[in-house]
Amino acid sequence: MKQNNLTNKFHNVINAHYLIFIHRIFIDEKVKKGGFDRIIDIFKQSNIDVQLIESALYGRRCRVQSTCFQVSQSQKKKCINFVTPSAIFSRIVEVLIAIILAKKYKQNLVSAIFGVNPINFITGYIWKIVYRSKARMIFHAIDYSDKRFSNKLLNLLYKRMYLFSLKRADVVFCVTQRMLDRFIEMVPNGNYLYLPNNVNIEQVKKIKLKQVHKRDKFIVGCVSYIYSGFDWQAIVDASALLKDLEVEFWIVGDGPELNKFKNTVCLNGLDEIYRFFGHLEYEESLKKIASFNLGIAIYNGSASFNFYGDSIKIREYAAFGMPILCNPLTSTANEGEAYGACLIVNNPQEIADSIKLLLVKTDLRDRMSASATAWSQKYDNRRKLQEYGFII
Length: 392
Prior knowledge:
Elements (H helix, E strand, L loop, with lengths): L5 H4 L7 E11 L2 E3 L3 H10 L3 E8 L4 E9 L6 E8 L3 H15 L10 E5 L1 H13 L5 E6 L10 H17 L2 E4 L2 H10 L5 E3 L6 H10 L7 E6 L8 H9 L6 E6 L5 H10 L6 E5 L3 H8 L4 E4 L14 H8 L4 E3 L4 H8 L3 E3 L3 H13 L1 H17 L2 H8 L4
Parallel strand pairs: 1-3, 1-6, 6-7, 7-8, 8-9, 10-11, 10-13, 11-12, 13-14, 14-15
Antiparallel strand pairs: 1-2, 3-4, 4-5
Helix pairs in contact: 3-4, 4-5, 8-13, 11-14
């Protein structure tokens, strides 16, 4: 992995000003937080001036908002909403609006521009040229797919944008080892740094201290967006093999397939061993994870980006020091298995057998728990950002 001494070569961290372009999912005007939010929080806690330019991820009804977090001033926010004839056209409009919203942000003081995905990197790159900034360009790659779109022309454009970002970036953050290896194949001379998603370790410690466990049953927990790429059917099939044991399944999250998931549970007569909590705010979600005995993350491969992407949920389970069951689709699962934190399962029978094993083998649970904690702490984002020279 190619790395530089960024503390001396990159920029003056003491007087740093970071400009960040990022896409968001807005739920009832609120931002659904993702893996990069941990990094943003660390920047703000490190007394670094930050301006966020956030654009809505989906659809024709779009939103672009600018938020400044400055050490010497209170938070400032400006938001523009608009509707376009098509989703593709909205991407073009949002780039222009994002550049305009970022216009007044201390052009001569910006030391780093972060683009979280190719469109945002290109937006930041245009901003740098228009305002003649000397800031370094950081490409934070949250996922990648060799075949992201079924439309060949659209997929070609997507890959060209990725290549542009990899070639023009001063630094590329990669969230998985599998992604890093693929990028080296694509652009061998890139400056790549491994920065997987993680959670606030101190926040996790506080939640664990306050959590009171009064559980009669073994809790198998899952936090996920309930969509076509999440293999909820495998979980239902596995739970049907366990309904006579002291096991409960807790599901946190919502999405387009939630009702289908619930109906399948009912049709299989499994209502008594399932609890659905719906969408929870981030901290409430973490508190719920703290009550799990075992975390589970199963994907079916229909979402192509899962192969190179990082499973934040596996990272969150690990931070709370619990054993994890996952199938081998994600790079995170394979990394977790190598550290002794994850058991790899391939079908409902193996899921059920692994839960039975962990239900009785307390020594195995303890070993996996210790391994999960150690794995999570090794890749604490604050520590890695200090190592890479982005904070003091």
